[in-house]
Amino acid sequence: MEDTQLADLFEPADRARWLGLVDNVLKGADFEKRLVSRTSDGLRIEPLYPRAEPTAQPFREPGPWRVSQRVDHPEIAAANAQAMTDLEGGADALALVFAGSAAARGYGLTAGSVADLDAVLKGVMLPLISLRLDAGARGLEVAGLVKGLAAHRGEDLSSYNLDLGIDPVGTLAATGSLGAVWSEIAPRLAATVSDLEAAGFTGRAFVADGRPYHEAGAGEAAELAAVLATAVTYLRGLEAAGHDLATARDRISVLVAADADEFVTVAKFRALRRLWARIEQACGLEPKPLRLHAETAWRMMTRRDPFVNILRTGMAAASAGMGGADTVTVLPYTQALGLPDAFARRVARNSQIVLLEESHLARVSDPAAGAGGFETLTAQLAEAAWEAFQAIEAEGGIVASLSVGKLQRRIEATREARAKAVATRREPLTGASEFPNLAEKPVTVLDVKPVTAGPSSNFGSGSAVACDALPSIRLAEPFEALRDASDAYLAKTGRRPAVFLANLGSVSAFNARATFAANAFAAGGIEAVSNDGFTDPAALAGAFKESGAALACICSTDKIYADHAVPAAEALNQAGAGTIYLAGKPTDLLDPLKAAGVHAFLHAGCDLVALLNGALRAAMRPSPKN
Predict the structure, then answer these.
(1) What is the rounded CA–CA span in Å between residue 168 and residue 453?
(2) Which end of the chain has less neighbouring CB within 10 Å, N or C?
(3) Cβ distance 130 to 92 under 8 Å?
(4) Helix (H) or strand (E) holding 318
(5) Cα 603 off chain centre by
(6) Do 72 and 104 contact (CB within 8 A), yes or no?
(7) How far apart are CA 321 and CA 293, in angstroms?
């Protein structure tokens, strides 16, 4: 027999044949609803893509991305210890986060002089690492400290790989105010760059920071549009002051949030590089690699079951690196609970080292190139972001758009839609809305008090630009508030609010919905009291009374509900159940069940936050009947 390739033994695969097989599995279900998802910007994500031609685009310089670590301890000696430990442990970049910056989360460096900054960086050989500053409204002041530090150490400022992080637009978006009108601020920024260049500065003075928009709930296209509009604003300011455009673009870097959605995050970083190249071409410049920073997203962090944050930030870091980030900063997994300790910082650092040194994710430049899904989403996202950028420009630029609230209103609409998706668990949050752990053990953070915010904006003085500040949110906050109330009740009474699972029939009949209900109630801090199931309403009522719970949730199949749900609800009502729920929503029984005392229906797609709010109040206020 002649040798035959294995693939030749099978019928060639194509999309039409695949769709036919899918139709057989769906059995009439809607393909769009079952298999096509959408991003927050409405972009389609298909279940399957063909191979695509790689699209040439500027990528980062060859080699691995830099492992960046936040230095944010208010005490100077402790901050220096953080920096040295991180560098000795494998980091090759530092992000100095100063008090008063939105990213400091109530902590941050308190260094206010060259001597202080020198002490923070004692033993750090600055020419060997990458340094990014995050000072918020103190951006110009801290930039001056770095210039003074180089002079104090007798080092050439050009030897530093610097990102000064000056970002008045980001400060305006995050705080709602600046110290002067933009026509006064822009010349001052340009003069600062001239002064730095005279001292040998060759790094990036400004950063177009996407975090304020991402934390406010913006979709990926809106975040990219805001970043582009900010960078263009800085370009215009430098050009108006006489700076050469080719040099001006080298003074700008970009920082965007990296989320746990691998598909969207990789596409976002790739799209940003493509969009920036388009800006450069519009300016008559030959595109060159953009300095692109990533920080794992604040809004995805949870205070509950924080170890899951390690998984989220690990996926985000990998996605940012594969998407083309030059530096990646991972938020420690306890960041939402306080100032992270040495262990949490080590985990953040090592997660990147594993990705680089063991998984070798940086060995291939642009690993998503040619993958149909990534190429398609990158192109769609770039197009949507460019359209959103043009909308901001039509409003007079990002400062004008923020000043009249137009950008905020667009982001607000996306934020509200996302909040609804979180509340209904269409966007699940592991450890918070999905698979909550009521027995979780507390984690440790440093015993450091938050520090007073730094001084007001030093970008100018006089008539200030003002706008509605963008909120900084975490998606898990509604569920965390419920869990906090449950914890307070536990501390006061010695037991958690409880719900009795009124299981009907055999285990095989009620198990699926009972498990669903137990997890749903646990997301609000309500403990489920389960059993082996009942067929007799009287026995069910007796077990409910013995449980001591104020709530009951009937769990079984629709078939069993048809004959037994109404009698069960009536028995529970007579037994003193203050509030009764039913897992599922049998449409033909809604009115009889409500008449029997069923308060609400627990099912996929219900507003779980609203339901749990009511359940928690009822559970903490037992019925006098019980």
Answers:
(1) 17
(2) N
(3) yes
(4) helix 308-323
(5) 27
(6) yes
(7) 10
